[in-house]
Each structure stands twice: as C-alpha cells, then as structure tokens.
Amino acid sequence: MDALLIVDVQNDFLPGGSLPVPEGDKIIPVINALQPRFKHNIATKDWHPANHGSFASNHPGHQVGEVITLNGLEQILWPDHCVKGSPGAEFSPLLNQGLIQKVIFKGSDPAVDSYSAFFDNGRRIQTELHNYLRIKGIKRLYVTGLAADVCVYFTVKDALELGYETFLITDATKGVNLQPDDTEKAFEDMKNRGAKLIRSEEI
C-alpha cells in the first residue's frame, strides 16, 4: 500500500511567512495534482507552543541562525514560526485539503525540536505517524513538502530506517538552503541511504 506524505505546507514556510522557503509555493500545484493518484494522503504540521526552545526570541541575547545546546542537542535558532493556532501554522489555502485523511502534529514539546514527521530530534518520542502507517498497511511512502533540507530530509531518513520503501518527489519539495548547496547535499544523502528520487510525472 502506498501513501503520499505532505510535509509542513504551512503559511509560515511560504513566501510572506516568518520562515519562508524560497519558491515554496511553487510545489503546491504539483502536490495537488498528485493527491488524486493516492488512496492515502497524509499531511504534517509543525505545531509549536509560543515558548518553544527553537525560537531565538526565547533566548535573550541570541540571534536567528545561531546554534545553541537545547536539552543536550544541537539546536539552530529559528524565527517564531507555526505557533499552534496561529494563521502561520495553518496549511496554505492553495493546498487541496479535501483529500487529506490524516494530519500529524509535531514539535509541540517546548523542550525539543521535531524536524522529522516520525520522531522528535532526540528520537525520544514518536509522533502518530509510524503507528498510523502500520495500521493502514502502508509500506511505500512518497514524500513531498517543506523544507527539502530540513523536515523532509529528516522524515525521509527516519522512513528508511523504519523500513519503508521511500520515494522523494524532487519537484514537489524546496529547501531553505541556509548554505547554498544544502538541498543538493540532502538529496545526495537521501539517495545514498536508499531513497528513490523521482519526479511527479514518473508516478
């Protein structure tokens, strides 16, 4: 059984949001066109409390982009984003939400960030995703969304480690690129770990 996984297509990650992925909106028509081809469409949401430890605003004297230690883990400080209940945390209105059967929330613990759709960054707590996929008998994941070099990257790595046959749809993701080649490096690493990199027209 196959599923389409749509990672964090939320207003704050799109142009005009607080943590925009350049051209992130360009992937939405591709994702919308893919959804009818899948029986299972699952979407994730970053869903942070306002006091989240990854927000630079919660660390006086520190700036966005600085790296700190948060509960024993290396943590990049981000602008406030996807605060639960805020407009920035909602899915883009351009995203077809009518075919999404399940929404997975992540990043709700203020003490640890959660890039992957499966685990927090310390791999201490699982989201609902792995259990949901097992219940539905899903073995193959087709991953899309934002951002290619952060949440999509960590999600694909965990999917492979958990034993899913994992496809990354390269024209349905975009990267933040804090460094200019971050997305390219992420693609290469995902491929080396066993992910199959395909384009939407191949499905």
Automatic annotation (TrEMBL):
One of its GO terms (molecular function) is nicotinamidase activity. The keyword Nucleus does not apply. Pathway: Cofactor biosynthesis; nicotinate biosynthesis; nicotinate from nicotinamide: step 1/1. SUPFAM superfamilies: Isochorismatase-like hydrolases. InterPro entries: Isochorismatase-like_dom, Isochorismatase-like_sf, Isochorismatase_Nicotinamidase. Residues 3-202 form the Isochorismatase-like domain. Keywords: Hydrolase, Metal-binding, Pyridine nucleotide biosynthesis. Gene3D superfamilies: Isochorismatase-like (3.40.50.850). Pfam families: Isochorismatase (PF00857). Its EC number is 3.5.1.19. GO terms for biological process: pyridine nucleotide biosynthetic process. Belongs to the isochorismatase family. PANTHER family: LD05707P (PTHR11080:SF2), PYRAZINAMIDASE/NICOTINAMIDASE (PTHR11080). This is Nicotinamidase.
